[in-house]
């Protein structure tokens, strides 16, 4: 059954809703075809489902077990872990129905090396290593598909020793009997370059379609869901769109998602690549450092269109 309401499409859990099918990319396909599909999906939706991605199942399964063990700890122990938070998102009063652990995931991260016990530390470190490599591979396929001569133009930011990449483990507790289904993690776009989300088999993630309707993404623990972030929208001069998404509370089961956010170093300059700028399509955004964008983004509400603050004013904007 499919029901379309004013602002939401509700499906029966399939990936095809209201005649729409979300892009699905099989990474084991021919390189040129994969790169073409990734570019198309990033332009149309800023989002795609990635299958046959090559990340070993045992690394993902161990990470999930360790994350569950962390969230099952007593509150006092969780509160004593740097990066742990619950019910609030960011610093501007946004609330959410979740708890999370937010860790720096740069190659030189010390927040991972401080984790305990050692099993947790090792699985986070291993998971971050393989997922960062996967994100770099996707970014290189994007550059190839966009015909950018330096195919590492995007991925080099993530490989940098001081990259500001993050790993966020989100735990959404199950609904209590008389709760109504609601937004658990409010609408936003991710500020970074690229996000790779993997969740357990419980629904919750929704993405905003170009027509403004919300699309419930069916969970698939064997896949990664890939989001274009604001910084990649800027570097592609608006050819790729950073997708707005949110997560809903869900029935009786606990939902857990693990999001890797690939980001540049703080002092990196974020600007449209020269190949993305033409006389007909001048730069849409003024250049900024990643530190500058982070500061601006975190001083605004989660749901604000944070990247709009960096747009160059055009005649169209002024009309
Ligand atoms: O839990 C999810 O599926 C989405 C989480 C999310 O959007 C985030 O952590 O930025
Ligand atoms: Fe997000």
UniProtKB/TrEMBL annotation:
Domain of life the protein comes from: Eukaryota
UniProt cross-references to InterPro entries, sorted A to Z: DIOX_N (IPR026992), IPNS-like_FE2OG_OXY (IPR044861), IPNS-like_sf (IPR027443), Iron_ascorbate_oxido_reductase (IPR050231), Oxoglu/Fe-dep_dioxygenase_dom (IPR005123)
Keywords: Iron, Metal-binding, Oxidoreductase
Gene Ontology MF terms: metal ion binding; oxidoreductase activity
Fe2OG dioxygenase domain ranges (all copies): 162-264
Pfam family, one: 2OG-FeII_Oxy
Oxidoreductase in keyword set: yes
Signal sequence bounds: none
Xref: Gene3D superfamilies: B-lactam Antibiotic, Isopenicillin N Synthase, Chain
Family according to the record: Belongs to the iron/ascorbate-dependent oxidoreductase family.
Name the UniProt record assigns to this protein: Fe2OG dioxygenase domain-containing protein
